[in-house]
Design a protein that fits this description.
alpha+beta, two-stranded antiparallel sheet, 2 domains
Length: 454
Amino acid sequence: MRKRPQFPRLQGFGRLLACLVAAGWIATPPSAFAQFDYEQLPIAYSQTEAQDRIARLVEAVESGERQLRWDEQQGWLPALLEALDVSPESQTLVFSKTSLQIRHISPQNPRALYFSDDSYLGYVPGGDLIELSAVDPQLGPVFYTVEQRRRERPRILRDETQCLTCHSTGKTQGVPGYLVRSVFAGADGQPLYGLGTTTTDHRTPFKERFGGWFVTGQHGEMRHRGNGLAKNDPQQPLDWEAGANQLAVPAAVRADRYPRPGSDLVALMVLEHQSQMHNFITAAQYETRQAIAYQETMNRALERPIDQRSESTTRRIHSAAERLVRCLLFAEEYSLTSPIAGSSLFAGEFEQLGPKDSRGRSLRQFDLQTRLLKYPCSYLIYSPAFDRLPDEVRERVGQRLEQILTATTPERGFEHLTPELRVAIREILLETKPGLLADAATDRVVSKQGDAEK
């Protein structure tokens, strides 16, 4: 009887298979490789304790260290805005029924959104609760609710189901995230989905923005979908002129029920950029941690050095970094054709937050003539979420920024950055974000030296 040939590598493969099953990479029985999602390790989103600004507030409130005062008109809103350091000037108003409290939202009673760099609050007069979210440096956006009920202290609960139904989809890159939607909303605020919807950011043409939102401010000859109630008519769904350059919300809205009377245009444009920027940071965080975890599982199974990186792992990390860099540098930003002005103190407050370099320049300075920011590099590069990115992706972002900003001719996709802008952004970052570009430049020199030695 002919002896069956032995395959020495089978034992190693069996060990690899067992490791992958144990780590959750392969379903049991092991029929196919499973796509890692954020509820599995190494993310374990719902099972991981959050360390964001709201989580810290919850601890302070429950311990008695922080007292929040109930307001007879707006409930817990004023106290939460103060405790989370969110300015009322960031107020924007959305009247489409596109969020958790749709039965309370209408064109006469819009939902108000307030935000800072890392925190968001949603408030509806007469609503049952206040919606909260904050960006955790490891988990990304984490969602909470506060019941609008007078009691000794507010009960702030982490939400793990309802919010993620909308805030974790392809529109948020498949991670917990944020989105600003533009819809055609009918007389009752219900979206007319047959006319289409748009998830907006700084790349979106101005005419496609703000559907279902009130917009107060000036924008010259440009037009948008905001301020108007739509008809189910694909040829002429809106009166584009009626909603243009409005300095106040309609009289039917009880503006006195909100901390501020308007829905600032500049705040809306910042919100559009910031919401997607957070998603890119979170996606880079998750993708890198997942790629490294998978690589380390493989290395253990095959008895290779734990820190060894395959070409595919490196590609995953570099790809996530590249997407992040494109958003950071406002690639494909829509060019404004008229100047923009808001209706509140938001722009002035925002610009004062800094940091500034020795020449008084800041990534928070507005342009509002042809683009959003004077120096098109996102201010969220200073955020704790960016700083806590895994070293491998953060360093790659620094390398790419150095390459793009020092290029003698613009890289493809970054032609909007003139030589003057590239120099200015780099100088600001060198002073206000020390180490990021310097490390990238050093890594590039070391890499070249290593290549030469080979």
